[in-house]
Amino acid sequence: MASAGNDLEQPKLSFFGKGSKSSCAEINSSTEPLIVGNRYNEEYSVAAAILPFFFPALGGLLFGYDIGATSGATISLESSTLSGTTWYNLSSVEIGLVVSGSLGGALIGSVLAFNVADFLGRRRELIWSSVLYLLGALLTALAPNYPVMVIGRFVFGIGIGLAMHAAPMYIAETAASQIRGRLISLKEFFIVLGMLLGYAASSAYVGLVSGWRYMYGSSAPIALIMGIGMWCLPASPRWLLLCAIQGRDRLEETKETAKCCLCMLRGITDEAVALEQIDEILAELSYAGQEKEASIWEVFQGKCLKALIIGAGLVFFQQVTGQPSVLYYAATIFKSAGFSAAADATRVSVFLGLLKLIMTGVAVVVVDKLGRRPLLLGGVSGMAISLIFLSSYYTFWKSSPLIAVIGLLLYVGCYQLSFGPIGWLMISEIFPLRLRGRGLSIAVLVNFASNALVTFAFSPLQSILGAGVLFGIFFVIALVSLIFIFYFVPETKGLTLEEIEARIL
């Protein structure tokens, strides 16, 4: 494996871009790194790293499953013959609440995470999210009436908000720096895999009476497995040490507990190596002034403000470059191109899901080799080109649907190479430990809020402006996002979380 220390020799990006000597001097003078020279690779075992990744990643899989299952559940729920209810004749507003209920719950969960994340810790937050997933799935599947179903959707959504907040933090804080990018990107792979499972469940149950109950109920066993798995896993050593530094636990006892947790999570057999890594984290925490608990206003100051601009900016552009809207046109584009077998919405969704899965797999393989910035710059550039194709098709070349198909496939592939996995990866890495819980909750809130904004604003804007103009606007936003990435987003490949805080923020 390549030494993490080799990456430390690269020129550091300043907050305002590359090559700003005054900015670099200011950062170096205010936060002189404790970790210098060529450091050793963090010891880890691949076998030991599987479960600390797998169970948190199930939270992402359940998020993706909900998206896929809902596409078929609404069809089943509205059918007079297949809904199995007396209240199938739902209005567009009522169907909208079913579809967006989990998104609304996710927004609530993101707000809750801001206040409870640092108190609960990453592991317990994931346990609670699994409980909410389970309760929400059962309430929705067994709902005797419409109001109970909507409540179930919101409860499930709160679980999404907590899981999408805590899972990347837990994985980032427990994984070795050499594989951190790969594992967090693999969580995005699990989200896409969840979508495919949701589409498969929709296809399997849509012809059954009360099929929507089976679609939503099928997520309950996965939530149960996630909860049991997280219960068996140890807490994040970094969170334990932060609690000790802030006086919530006794330091010596916590060091021993953190050492045992690190040995379990990394598969380290030499306790001296584990203790050396624990001391390194403690030294960096003590130097960085992490003794006081974070206040709300500190999130918008200093290092965390810089991290917030980077993280929230990435997940904001992730949504407003048109990702929900492009997929909205998928079935229409394939139908116009003459792919009659793919005109069915479920088959189109499965096909695009497979493409997303493959491209996310590519990102997982190369993210720790190529780095975050090359994937972002290359992928978003591809998205911009694809948006030109889509805009041109709807504006000038309606008789050439192949252009739209190429644009759609290019967009989906490039998104899954860049914004899809890298957005979640960067927000889990970039925040200082003391403010990571609150900073990441704001970034997750921005993600879900911007998703809701694009989803709800798309139809009225499309009717007013037309699809061609709207995709042209998304192209301009993609160009702005490229400028943002080039000047503001640093490279974090190969650095420990403490090194990122000391050298980049």
TrEMBL record:
<feature type="transmembrane region" description="Helical">
    <location>
        <begin position="44"/>
        <end position="67"/>
    </location>
</feature>
<dbReference type="GO" id="GO:0022857">
    <property type="term" value="F:transmembrane transporter activity"/>
</dbReference>
<feature type="transmembrane region" description="Helical">
    <location>
        <begin position="150"/>
        <end position="168"/>
    </location>
</feature>
<dbReference type="GO" id="GO:0005737">
    <property type="term" value="C:cytoplasm"/>
</dbReference>
<dbReference type="GO" id="GO:1904659">
    <property type="term" value="P:D-glucose transmembrane transport"/>
</dbReference>
<feature type="transmembrane region" description="Helical">
    <location>
        <begin position="402"/>
        <end position="427"/>
    </location>
</feature>
<dbReference type="InterPro" id="IPR005829">
    <property type="entry name" value="Sugar_transporter_CS"/>
</dbReference>
<dbReference type="InterPro" id="IPR050820">
    <property type="entry name" value="MFS_Sugar_Transporter"/>
</dbReference>
<dbReference type="GO" id="GO:0016020">
    <property type="term" value="C:membrane"/>
</dbReference>
<dbReference type="InterPro" id="IPR036259">
    <property type="entry name" value="MFS_trans_sf"/>
</dbReference>
<feature type="transmembrane region" description="Helical">
    <location>
        <begin position="439"/>
        <end position="458"/>
    </location>
</feature>
<keyword id="KW-0812">Transmembrane</keyword>
<feature type="transmembrane region" description="Helical">
    <location>
        <begin position="87"/>
        <end position="114"/>
    </location>
</feature>
<dbReference type="InterPro" id="IPR020846">
    <property type="entry name" value="MFS_dom"/>
</dbReference>
<keyword id="KW-0813">Transport</keyword>
<dbReference type="InterPro" id="IPR005828">
    <property type="entry name" value="MFS_sugar_transport-like"/>
</dbReference>
<feature type="transmembrane region" description="Helical">
    <location>
        <begin position="126"/>
        <end position="144"/>
    </location>
</feature>
<dbReference type="InterPro" id="IPR003663">
    <property type="entry name" value="Sugar/inositol_transpt"/>
</dbReference>
<feature type="domain" description="Major facilitator superfamily (MFS) profile">
    <location>
        <begin position="52"/>
        <end position="493"/>
    </location>
</feature>
<comment type="similarity">
    <text>Belongs to the major facilitator superfamily. Sugar transporter (TC 2.A.1.1) family.</text>
</comment>
<keyword id="KW-1133">Transmembrane helix</keyword>
<feature type="transmembrane region" description="Helical">
    <location>
        <begin position="214"/>
        <end position="233"/>
    </location>
</feature>
<feature type="transmembrane region" description="Helical">
    <location>
        <begin position="349"/>
        <end position="367"/>
    </location>
</feature>
<feature type="transmembrane region" description="Helical">
    <location>
        <begin position="374"/>
        <end position="396"/>
    </location>
</feature>
<feature type="transmembrane region" description="Helical">
    <location>
        <begin position="189"/>
        <end position="208"/>
    </location>
</feature>
<dbReference type="Pfam" id="PF00083">
    <property type="entry name" value="Sugar_tr"/>
</dbReference>
<protein>
    <recommendedName>
        <fullName>Major facilitator superfamily (MFS) profile domain-containing protein</fullName>
    </recommendedName>
</protein>
<keyword id="KW-0472">Membrane</keyword>
<feature type="transmembrane region" description="Helical">
    <location>
        <begin position="464"/>
        <end position="489"/>
    </location>
</feature>
